[in-house]
C-alpha cells in the first residue's frame, strides 16, 4: 500500500515538473490582430536572453495558450514534444529565426542582469501579430486552416 501511494505521489510530482509552465508570459495589451506580452528571457548574455524571451512568447501561444485572453487555447493541439517530433524540420527552422517575422515590436523593460534568483535575465515587451502567426503555422502545415 505504501508503495502504491509513493508511486502515485512520484508520478504527480513528475507530471508537475514536466508541464510546460516554463514560460513567464503575461498579456498586457491586445487590439485584435496584435497582442503585447511582458516576457522574461534567460541566457548567458543579452542577445541570447532576448532571443529566448521572444521565442517563449511564440511557444506559449502555440503550445499553452495565454490565460484570460482571446488566445487562451493553444494554437497547436499537440504537446510541444509531440509537435517537435511530428513537424521536426519545419518547427526547427521556424524556431531558429523565422518566427521573428511575426514579432512586430520588442522593447526592453528591464535591462539584462541578475534577477532575484541570481539568474541572468532580461524582461521585454513583445508585440506579436497573431493573425500572421496563425497563417504561418498553417502554411508550414503545423495547424489546419480555421474552419476545416
Strand arrangement in the largest pleated sheet: 1-2-4-3
* Biggest pleated sheet: 4 strands, antiparallel
Helix/strand-derived category reads alpha+beta
User: Can you count the helices?
Assistant: 5
Helix proportion? 40-55%
Mean pLDDT: 84
Distance between the termini: 49 Å
Radius of gyration: 17 Å
Helix and strand sequence: HEEHHHEEH
Global morphology: globular
Strand content: 25-35%
- The total count of strands amounts to 4
Low-confidence stretches: 13-21
What does this protein look like?
By secondary structure, the chain is an alpha+beta fold. Helix content is 41%, strand content 25%. The protein contains five helices and four strands, in the order H-E-E-H-H-H-E-E-H. The chain has helices spanning 2-18, 46-64, 80-86, 88-95, 130-139; strands at 25-30, 34-42, 103-114, 120-129. Helix 3 (80-86) packs across helix 4. The chain starts with a helix and ends in a 9-residue tail after the last helix.
Structure, briefly:
Helices cover 41% and strands 25% of the residues.
Show the helix and strand layout:
Elements: H1 2-18, E1 25-30, E2 34-42, H2 46-64, H3 80-86, H4 88-95, E3 103-114, E4 120-129, H5 130-139
Key words describing this protein structure:
single chain, 148 residues, alpha+beta, four-stranded antiparallel β-sheet, 4 strands, 41% helix, 25% strand, globular
